[in-house]
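Input record (one chain):
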Amino acid sequence: MFISCGDILVDLFHSPSDSVGDVGLNGHVGGSPLNVAVGLSRLGNKAGYLCKNSTDVIGQGISRYIEANGILSDWVVPSDLNSTLAMIRKNADGSANYAFYTSNTADVSLTPDELPEQFPDELAVLHFGSYSTAVAPTSTALLALAKREASRRVISYDPNLRTGVQPDLDVWQETFSTLGSVADFVKASDEDIATLFGNEKSYESFAADTIAMGASAVAVTEGGNGATIYTADGRIAKSTPPAITVADTVGAGDTFQAASLHWLYANGCVANGSLTLKDADIQQWVDFATKAAAITCTRLGADLPTLADINNWAGS
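The corresponding structure, as predicted from the sequence alone:
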């Protein structure tokens, strides 16, 4: 069983209109950790979500989306604060720019005393990431949770920096230090690494430093240039990204994360609160996760694939 923790919001995409005064917006439920939970569920896993969700009309829609995707909501705390919104503008290459509206909203208001005292014994992996790990009080709660559960569960972490929400890089670096020290698997994008540590930081050096903090595996994603996995026993595997027509890149990194966690669990690498990669085919792992992310990029919004979608995909 997996539980993902953190952001929960609606992505708003601008729809151009010729009508003066008309601002067209199309909304879709999102949030990086929630996308990971959706991806895990669609891949056939038992997945839950831990967050604070608004009871407003948007939050009600989010709740229906969680239920429709088969995600357990036992750890969702209701709130009368408003829902978070993210305005998304697509670039010509399909990449996205984000503007977040998070002031006094539900998903950044989780407090430590609202955390569950315990989880089911079947819980194998806890996933953390994005702005919920860098905006208090939710960040305080989630960092405490990760440290509390690190000896009993595999901890997954994707920094997924959102400097529009938390502009203070010192906070992000402190968060990375805290979660990196307890995480078993860390995924970071090339943009995250450059923002956190500067353009001079090589991916190999980033992976080595993160593994030295305690991670068993590190993945670095580079958009259209594929991804690379580094393991604590010194192995490296790089994917060759398939040729696709990109609709947009929203949710691609979350898809890679969900597909990675699925693959690790399905291949017996997750057991007794630790990640064991001795006999793992990490080339198969990175190729599987890259294919999953590519499928998401062919779709509008964070529309993550099922296992059948991945197995039957005829893309090159």
